[in-house]
């Protein structure tokens, strides 16, 4: 590799596990041979078990796709500040490139790496691509980040449209000149399997190819989306969230292909894509959103909380059972296991455990039930979803939990308490969804409700009145 013209560019993959519409990959291919790298970073919050399973499948698919072009995908675990300079030196890398990310401490890591490598004469380039809009591109008239979605979406719409158009126009599907160094062996990836991967395999299809197929299938029925998206018995949602979370498909491509369709569902779905951007913009401004209430008044709220519960989420073999003989731990365990005696809540939690996903309507219901009817801290819900959702990401997971709890930006008002019975009658009138996931529903073996919905609703409202 002594020939400078043949010295490779190191492409650091993060949440962009695809070949098409990948700005960093295109830049790397334009500059000669490419070496791919993925680091399981130990300086950040550990990825949850379900998302880790998805990521491993996606990395395996990516490695196979790269191998077709002779490009290796190296795997490392540890601190990027130590790993990247070592690889750059050992493999005589002339340039390093990556697609940007937007949360701490990872933004600081990237900035430090860029400076350190440039100081050593290494060319470094970062690219947009994970979001529709960069956080610094969309702000209020006073230059501050938006805290309310509606004005944010109006300000971000044209920026997103232009970026999507330019990205799809300029980025070829896969650079035809993509190639790897001649004297680097292609590594064999070892797959990591979580404890419930057998059920995930039946329900999930990670990888770039599957992401494209999902988008195509969804857009074929976009016209039905406004009426069908909340029907729990139908499969009318896009199913793209995990693919977008790991960048198996370009968010700009999803926007561009959706916007090209003249349909009643087009604007509605594009706004949902902007909601994802909004969550990331808020995390960019509030890096501790996963642990701290955005609305400070909720620091005085009397949610039940046990910090030691987090330590029990790493290696459960089944949904956790209570370890302490008190109502809080029993209620939390019943919620996680889908054994609350509230049919829609139980169906949603069992769907989550079996598939790594949950219908968005039901996510709001189970979150409201935990934080309001059971008066359990939203962080316990956020941590459980972080561990069991294949699409759990640092922004959307925390942002949506605080939205549901009433403690976040542009949140659902705390006094808006979803009634699981009413929601089931409206969105699952034939009980198809409930009976699919709770087969013992309606039989003597189904448990009585662990809480009275009407009484617990009033208790929640009274608790909220006390902190206003």
UniProtKB/TrEMBL annotation:
<comment type="similarity">
    <text>Belongs to the DNA photolyase family.</text>
</comment>
<feature type="binding site">
    <location>
        <begin position="391"/>
        <end position="393"/>
    </location>
    <ligand>
        <name>FAD</name>
    </ligand>
</feature>
<keyword id="KW-0285">Flavoprotein</keyword>
<feature type="binding site">
    <location>
        <position position="269"/>
    </location>
    <ligand>
        <name>FAD</name>
    </ligand>
</feature>
<dbReference type="GO" id="GO:0006950">
    <property type="term" value="P:response to stress"/>
</dbReference>
<dbReference type="InterPro" id="IPR002081">
    <property type="entry name" value="Cryptochrome/DNA_photolyase_1"/>
</dbReference>
<protein>
    <submittedName>
        <fullName>Deoxyribodipyrimidine photolyase</fullName>
    </submittedName>
</protein>
<dbReference type="InterPro" id="IPR006050">
    <property type="entry name" value="DNA_photolyase_N"/>
</dbReference>
<feature type="binding site">
    <location>
        <position position="225"/>
    </location>
    <ligand>
        <name>FAD</name>
    </ligand>
</feature>
<dbReference type="Pfam" id="PF00875">
    <property type="entry name" value="DNA_photolyase"/>
</dbReference>
<dbReference type="GO" id="GO:0003904">
    <property type="term" value="F:deoxyribodipyrimidine photo-lyase activity"/>
</dbReference>
<dbReference type="InterPro" id="IPR036134">
    <property type="entry name" value="Crypto/Photolyase_FAD-like_sf"/>
</dbReference>
<dbReference type="InterPro" id="IPR014729">
    <property type="entry name" value="Rossmann-like_a/b/a_fold"/>
</dbReference>
<dbReference type="InterPro" id="IPR018394">
    <property type="entry name" value="DNA_photolyase_1_CS_C"/>
</dbReference>
<feature type="site" description="Electron transfer via tryptophanyl radical">
    <location>
        <position position="303"/>
    </location>
</feature>
<feature type="domain" description="Photolyase/cryptochrome alpha/beta">
    <location>
        <begin position="7"/>
        <end position="132"/>
    </location>
</feature>
<dbReference type="InterPro" id="IPR036155">
    <property type="entry name" value="Crypto/Photolyase_N_sf"/>
</dbReference>
<dbReference type="GO" id="GO:0006139">
    <property type="term" value="P:nucleobase-containing compound metabolic process"/>
</dbReference>
<dbReference type="GO" id="GO:0009416">
    <property type="term" value="P:response to light stimulus"/>
</dbReference>
<feature type="site" description="Electron transfer via tryptophanyl radical">
    <location>
        <position position="401"/>
    </location>
</feature>
<keyword id="KW-0274">FAD</keyword>
<dbReference type="Pfam" id="PF03441">
    <property type="entry name" value="FAD_binding_7"/>
</dbReference>
<feature type="binding site">
    <location>
        <begin position="237"/>
        <end position="241"/>
    </location>
    <ligand>
        <name>FAD</name>
    </ligand>
</feature>
<keyword id="KW-0157">Chromophore</keyword>
<feature type="site" description="Electron transfer via tryptophanyl radical">
    <location>
        <position position="378"/>
    </location>
</feature>
<dbReference type="GO" id="GO:0003677">
    <property type="term" value="F:DNA binding"/>
</dbReference>
<dbReference type="InterPro" id="IPR005101">
    <property type="entry name" value="Cryptochr/Photolyase_FAD-bd"/>
</dbReference>
<dbReference type="GO" id="GO:0071949">
    <property type="term" value="F:FAD binding"/>
</dbReference>
């Amino acid at each position: 590799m002594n020939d400078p013209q043949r010295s490779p560019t190191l492409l650091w993959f993060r949440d962009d596990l695809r070949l098409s519409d990948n700005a960093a990959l295109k830049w790397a291919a334009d500059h000669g041979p490419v070496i791919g790298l993925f680091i399981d970073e130990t300086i950040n919050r550990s990825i949850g078990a379900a998302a880790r399973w998805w990521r491993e499948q996606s990395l395996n698919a990516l490695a196979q796709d790269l191998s077709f072009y002779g490009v290796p995908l190296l795997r490392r675990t540890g601190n990027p500040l130590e790993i990247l300079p070592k690889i750059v030196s050992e493999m005589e890398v002339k340039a390093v490139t990556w697609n940007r990310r937007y949360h701490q401490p990872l933004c600081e890591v990237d900035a430090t790496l860029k400076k350190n490598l440039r100081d050593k004469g290494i060319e470094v380039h970062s690219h947009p691509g994970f979001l529709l809009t960069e956080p610094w591109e969309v702000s209020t008239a006073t230059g501050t980040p938006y805290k309310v979605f509606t004005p944010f979406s109006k300000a971000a719409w044209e920026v997103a449209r232009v970026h999507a158009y330019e990205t799809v126009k300029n980025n070829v599907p896969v650079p035809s000149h993509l190639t790897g160094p001649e004297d680097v062996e292609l590594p064999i990836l070892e797959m990591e399997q979580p404890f419930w991967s057998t059920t995930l395999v039946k329900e999930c299809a990670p990888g770039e190819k599957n992401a494209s197929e999902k988008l195509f299938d969804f857009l074929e029925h976009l016209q039905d989306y406004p009426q069908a998206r909340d029907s729990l018995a139908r499969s009318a949602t896009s199913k793209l969230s995990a693919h977008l979370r790991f960048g198996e498909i370009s968010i700009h491509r999803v926007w561009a292909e959706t916007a090209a369709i003249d349909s009643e569902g087009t604007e509605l779905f594009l706004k949902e894509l902007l909601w994802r951007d909004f969550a990331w913009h808020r995390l960019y401004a509030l890096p501790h959103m996963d642990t701290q209430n955005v609305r400070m008044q909720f620091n005085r709220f009397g949610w039940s909380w046990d910090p030691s519960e987090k330590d029990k989420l790493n290696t459960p073999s089944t949904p956790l059972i209570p370890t302490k003989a008190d109502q809080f731990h029993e209620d939390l365990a019943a919620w996680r296991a889908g054994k609350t005696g509230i049919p829609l809540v139980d169906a949603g939690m069992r769907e989550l455990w079996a598939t790594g996903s949950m219908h968005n309507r039901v996510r709001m219901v189970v979150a409201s039930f935990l934080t309001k009817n059971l008066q359990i801290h939203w962080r316990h819900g956020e941590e459980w979803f972080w561990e069991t959702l294949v699409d759990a990401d640092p922004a959307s997971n925390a942002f949506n939990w605080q939205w549901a709890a009433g403690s976040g930006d542009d949140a659902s008002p705390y006094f808006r308490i979803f009634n699981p019975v009413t929601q089931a009658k409206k969105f699952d009138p034939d009980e198809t969804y409930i009976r699919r996931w709770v087969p013992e529903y309606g039989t003597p073996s189904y448990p009585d409700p662990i809480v009275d919905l009407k009484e617990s609703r009033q208790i929640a409202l009274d608790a909220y009145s006390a902190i206003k």
